[in-house]
Design brief:
- Allosteric enzyme that catalyzes the rate-limiting step in glycogen catabolism, the phosphorolytic cleavage of glycogen to produce glucose-1-phosphate, and plays a central role in maintaining cellular and organismal glucose homeostasis.
- This is Alpha-1,4 glucan phosphorylase.
- Its EC number is 2.4.1.1.
- One of its GO terms (cellular component) is cytoplasm.
- The chain has 847 residues and is of the alpha/beta class.
- It folds into three domains: 99 residues, no CATH class; 374 residues, Glycogen Phosphorylase B (Rossmann fold, 3-Layer(aba) Sandwich), CATH 3.40.50; 267 residues, Glycogen Phosphorylase B (Rossmann fold).
- The protein has 34 helices and 24 strands.
- Strands 1, 4, 7, 8, 11, 12, 13, 14, 17 and 18 form a ten-stranded mixed sheet that branches. The chain has a six-stranded parallel sheet with strand order 21-20-19-22-23-24, with helices on both faces.
- The chain starts with a helix and ends in a 20-residue tail after the last helix.
- Bound molecules: pyridoxal-5'-phosphate.
- Pyridoxal-5'-phosphate (PLP) binds next to helix 7, helix 25 and helix 26.
Length: 847
């Protein structure tokens, strides 16, 4: 049998190991094991080898990183700043080797040292500094910005604990802290010399000239940690800068000078808690003060850094230090990833007016030309609306500034729409008091007023922004509204995660698709020949066999690798309708029980995803899935016709393993609720077919591949709206659909949870009485569509042909396209302007 190493060697897109470079990698690896890890091979653990390897690979980044930053300093191009509370980076080692083009060489070096590179890659902890799509988008954007040579910086928080580790215990989700830095992080470099102060609380006073001053504040320091972001084989290395909270040295001693030194040292923890943990909520606003502190901490540190860099330009130093800010927007673009960093708007106003001494109108003009805002959701429960009382306490000066922005905006509305007080109320940044007398600041409204561009993340979503939630704003600022359909980086999501498929593609059309994904359409001409279809089928079968082996090792379940792999992986949320999927699974189970000899396409349904720890209904949905799995997987009547598995702790590194093995991708959100989705694109790129609603980017995927190559079902946005308007009653659907009625009664009767029959009562009640996302209304169409999926799957040739046409139609969904659009249409930056030669101080890079 072929060894893993030999199998990898056959993948030509990885390149060929150079003998001389292999020797140098071995030398560097041994040197790091000795001098950096301080171990010899008698006592070194696998983790030691991982760290020695990470250090070895990192060495190859260093010169390129320094040179790229030097180049930006010398040429002073316009900088792009991507501000995000989340960067869901996953693993770095393999991605770095791939982008540097040293995979094959390193693989060979380790092989000669008696080590397997894949075993070492598995040691690396995911950098799980994100929840789901929004955070992963930020990570894919970084990859594309570097690959397109855009002078860009990611700015975020260095959470000590990323997204929690999910365990499944007795079928329920249990959370454990994600202590990802426990063994150290070889990819980051602390920069204590660039530490910056951040203030909280205090009060606002007016000085003799009537200028506002924010005083008596509590001080925390922001310590930057830099991570290199290499472009794909272009010698560009950008920076992701993450801030970590550090207590001030005089903390508390200043306030309580009672000599309790030990207590004062212990209290340092309080301020360092700011960057302790990522909030684990996806598409949900939790109005906690600590979260607002995190948001302000990020933007306060980042804006100081941006202004420092602006002022210290080569062309602005000494003689002509940049003291004016008129040109600031020509040198700085700031993209807000959702409203999460939106407190940066009043912060920039404060810095310009209170600190730099600009007039209000001048400062406002700079602000609007600098900021751009991306909206990621229309779900009302996800829109950030901070209580005025909280801002008053934590950031009193910012609240004043927001009031002032709002007052001027209200005046502008009344000029354009005199006497239209209802419109003013709807558009106000400061909302009217609620039933408890609480006033709130609507951060999305603030972002729209203060940005020159606002974009949705798929065509449908951008249209809905204009026609629903932000209709009034669209009427007022039509020129600000844009669409930027999301994407994914084809480097991580095909070249890295599915090297065998990448190689099949390279053999047909070469390597240009790696940086120009539209090239994949050249594959279409091969859709009539059996050869490429056979190869695609073979690669999919291999990937499925590997996952089946993993499932057997990990969960002790035996999977039929030739069954249809039906995959639903994403955050668990009612709007994403994992519930609709499991209702279909129960339908199949009921059919088998009714007719044990039924002729059906065997299926393996794989679920994965985390529920927010406080989201009761999402946790019930997980429990229903695991309960159905326990019954179905152990029922001898079912055999290998049906298997249901909940994958524990779904995360970026697991997505990379599972998605290449999927036959069917579940993208079944209620139409109008999923802004874009990016999981959908990963599956399509890896040759899975999609079953989905006309929602988010599914709409554009269907356009690109043709409706005959995707399984679309259910209500569209207009039909959802019409049903809502008419008055939706899930009970009606349950009564008129026998298969559905049976299932609801089975859940109520505790068929799947016999030990505790009423365990899932909240779930069945939800279906009957508050089915907000219309699971029951789409049930029949979904089951019918799934039956069509199965019948097409019986014709493996037809299926493979569709899979090929899916792959060939993914060009639009590269973040390279997304980023080029942001660059030209929002940031005013031309991609591809950074050109750097390879450094060659190491043998690897010698020409
Ligand atoms: C891509 C990705 C997501 C987003 O998936 P959607 O289906 O778009 O919600 C979430 N989590 C992980 C780990 C991902 O890689």
């Amino acid at each position: 049998m072929m060894s893993d190493h030999d199998r990898r060697k056959q993948i030509s897109v990885r390149g060929i190991a150079q003998v001389e470079n292999v020797a140098n990698i071995k030398k560097a690896f041994n040197r790091h094991l000795h001098f950096s890890i301080i171990k010899d091979r008698n006592v070194a653990t696998m983790r030691d080898y991982y760290f020695a390897l990470a250090n070895t690979v990192r060495d190859h980044l260093v010169s390129r990183w320094i040179r790229t930053q030097q180049y930006y300093y010398e040429n002073d191009p316009k900088r792009v700043y991507y501000l995000s509370l989340e960067f869901y980076m996953g693993r770095t080692l393999s991605n770095t080797m791939m982008n540097l083009g040293i995979q094959a060489t390193v693989d060979e070096a380790l092989y000669q040292l008696g080590l397997d590179i894949e075993d070492l890659q598995e040691i690396e902890e995911d950098a799980g500094l994100g929840n789901g799509g929004l955070g992963r988008l930020a990570a894919c954007f970084l990859d594309s910005m570097a690959t397109l040579g855009i002078p860009a910086y990611g700015y975020g928080l260095r959470y000590e604990y990323g997204i929690f580790k999910q365990l499944i215990r007795d079928g329920w989700q249990v959370e454990e802290p994600d202590d990802w830095l426990r063994f150290g992080n070889p990819w980051e470099k602390a920069r204590p010399e660039y530490m910056l102060p951040v203030n909280f609380y205090g009060k606002v006073i007016k000085d003799e000239k009537g200028k506002s001053k924010w005083v008596d504040t509590q001080l925390v320091f922001a310590m930057p940690y830099d991570t290199p972001v290499p472009g794909y084989r272009n010698n560009v290395v950008n920076t992701l800068r993450l801030w970590s909270a550090k207590a001030e040295n005089h903390f508390h001693l200043k306030f309580f000078n009672d000599g309790d030194y030990v207590q004062a040292v212990m209290d340092r923890n309080l301020s360092e808690n700011i960057t302790r943990v990522l909030y684990p909520n996806d598409n949900m606003f939790i109005g906690k003060e600590l979260r607002l502190k995190q948001q302000y901490f990020l933007v306060a540190a980042t804006l100081q850094d941006i202004i420092r860099r602006y002022k210290s330009s080569k062309y602005g130093s000494r003689e002509s230090i940049r003291v004016t800010f008129e040109n600031f927007p020509e040198k700085v673009a700031i993209q807000l990833n959702d409203t999460h960093p939106s407190i940066g708007i009043p912060e920039l106003m404060r810095l310009l007016v209170d600190v730099e001494g600009l007039e209000w109108d001048q400062a406002w003009d700079v602000c609007v030309r600098t900021f751009a805002y991306t909206n990621h959701t229309l779900l009302p429960e996800a829109l950030e609306r901070w209580p005025v009382s909280m801002l008053q306490t934590l950031l009193p000066r910012h609240l004043e500034i927001i009031y002032e922005i709002n007052q001027k905006f209200m005046e502008a509305i009344s000029t354009k729409f005199p006497g239209d007080f209802d419109r003013m109320r709807r558009m106000s940044i400061v909302e009217e008091a609620d039933q408890f007398g609480e006033k709130r600041i609507n951060m999305a409204n603030l972002c729209i007023v203060a940005s020159h561009a606002i974009n949705g993340v798929a065509a449908l979503h951008s249209d809905l922004l204009k026609s629903t939630t932000f209709k009034d704003f669209y009427e007022f600022f039509p020129e600000k509204f844009q669409n930027k359909t999301n994407g994914i980086t084809p480097r991580r999501w095909l070249l890295l995660s599915n090297p065998s498929l990448a190689d099949v593609i390279v053999e047909k059309i070469g390597e240009d698709w790696i940086t120009n994904l539209d090239e994949l359409k050249k594959l279409k001409e091969f859709a009539v020949e059996p050869q490429l279809l056979d190869q695609i089928r073979r690669v999919k079968a291999e990937n499925k066999t590997r996952v089946a082996q993993f499932l057997s090792d990990e969960y002790n379940v035996d999977i039929n690798p030739s069954s249809l792999f039906d995959v639903h992986v994403k955050r668990i949320h009612e709007y994403k309708r994992q519930l609709l999927n499991i209702l279909h699974v129960i339908t199949l189970y009921n059919r088998i029980k009714a007719d044990p000899n039924i002729d059906m396409v065997p299926r393996t349904i794989l679920y994965g995803g985390k529920a927010a720890p406080g989201y009761h209904m999402a946790k019930q949905i997980i429990r229903l899935i695991t309960a159905v799995g326990e019954i179905v997987n152990n029922d001898p009547v079912v055999g290998d016709k049906l298997k249901v598995i909940f994958l524990e702790n779904y995360r970026v590194s697991m997505a990379e393993k599972i998605i290449p093995a999927a036959d069917l991708s579940e993208q079944i959100s209620t139409a109008g609720t999923e802004a874009s989705g990016t999981g959908n694109m990963k599956f399509m790129l890896n040759g899975a077919l999609t079953i989905g609603t006309l929602d988010g980017a599914n709409v554009e995927m269907a356009e690109e591949m043709g409706k005959e190559n995707i399984f679309i079902f259910g209500m569209n946005v207009d039909e959802v709206e019409a049903l809502q308007k008419k008055g939706y009653s899930s009970q009606e659907f349950i009564q008129k659909t026998p298969a559905l009625k049976q299932i609801v009664e089975q859940i109520e009767g505790g068929l799947f949870t016999p030990e505790q029959p009423d365990q899932l009562r909240d779930l069945s009640n939800m279906l009957r009485y508050h089915d907000r996302f219309m699971v029951c209304a789409d049930f029949e169409a979904y089951v019918a569509c799934q039956d069509k999926v199965a019948s097409v799957y019986r014709d493996q040739n037809a299926w493979s042909r569709m899979a090929l046409l899916n792959i060939a139609s993914t060009g639009k969904f590269s973040t390279d396209r997304t980023i080029a659009e942001y660059a030209r249409q929002i940031w005013g930056v031309e991609p591809g302007q950074t050109s750097l030669p390879a450094p060659y101080e190491t043998a690897e890079e010698k020409p």
